[in-house]
């Protein structure tokens, strides 16, 4: 799947829709851009720009915003996309909850909500709940034109299903894409959660740069990685490439539901982090025994004074850092972004990761990699779900906007 189109247009008649998408994206990214500037930046003729703009304005997708005074010649008219009347929904599916946010086409969040799952619900019942809630929301917000999902992996892009969701069974039997296409009243697009987050990060950190490689290292209820290389996702044969969570880091480690042993996810997901702390608390004196509920924050807060907390944090951070060095060695990203709930332990992660990169990565490669640590509240997976919906809505804009 191409993430960013070339900035050069084509004047062939057969390329009308490609050029239309290119122009829409440029207007979105550069509000008040003029027709002359569009022609200069895309290489399209003035006649091609005029024809496409007439269609977009007639469909009320784009409007003329204001007079823009140029340095030479007569003033020009600026252009904007009508982001108020065209919106998308982003859905983040997790093991124990799901989040829904709706966004304008310029990525501005309008509102978002998170809903916990009843642990007794089957996979199919959970999807039914999401579908019912989304259809109600679509009825309430007529501006919605597309829905994007970010789901845990490995996500089989060809078949449209999750091959494995650790801790929650049954999803591997459901063809998600078919299910939502049949139950929702708007078109849908589904992406692996880390891929979706990578797209959102690219828009935020790389400012649409085309020649960069970005890796998003997702450390949450599961562990995953999404990579964008020179404008395109690194997907592999079935779309499951960069599934770092099921990479072995300990040949004699615990078995994983994927069939492997010693998987990274069994050491540094939030689920395994809490599970190991509770297991150690059964046999070792610890402050955790006195707490009504063992939380990540409690474990980090008692690091200095509690042996169990310190041991669990050290094990987790060590594994997490090993995973990061694997990503750097395998994909050579110019930007590595860490995100997810495990970043609550940022103060423990950053110094150790920087030291491990310096120690274990070839200096020229290490020096060419910038590392960014996001805040847990910066939900790039949900933003990414909206980003893939926006991308899809623009790519199919002619059909969508005519239908609306």
Overall structural class, as computed from helix and strand content, comes to alpha/beta
How many domain regions? 3
Shape label: globular
Strand order within the widest sheet? 6-5-4-7-10
Largest sheet: 5 strands, mixed
The mean pLDDT is 90
Q: Quickly count the helices.
A: 14
N→C terminal distance: 25 Å
CATH class membership of the largest domain: Alpha Beta
Rg calc = 23 Å
Percent of residues in beta strands: 15-25%
**What's the CATH architecture name of the largest domain?**
2-Layer Sandwich
Order of helices and strands: HEHHEEEEEHEEEHEHEEEHHHHEHHEHH
CATH-assigned fold name of the largest domain: Nucleotidyltransferase, domain 5
CATH superfamily of the largest domain, called what?
Answer: ATPase, nucleotide binding domain
- Runs with pLDDT <50, length 5+? 1-6
Number of strands: 15
Helix percent band: 40-55%
Pfam family, one: HTH_24
InterPro entries: ATPase_NBD (IPR043129), ROK (IPR000600), ROK_cs (IPR049874), WH-like_DNA-bd_sf (IPR036388), WH_DNA-bd_sf (IPR036390)
Organism: Dolosicoccus paucivorans
Function: Transcriptional repressor of xylose-utilizing enzymes.
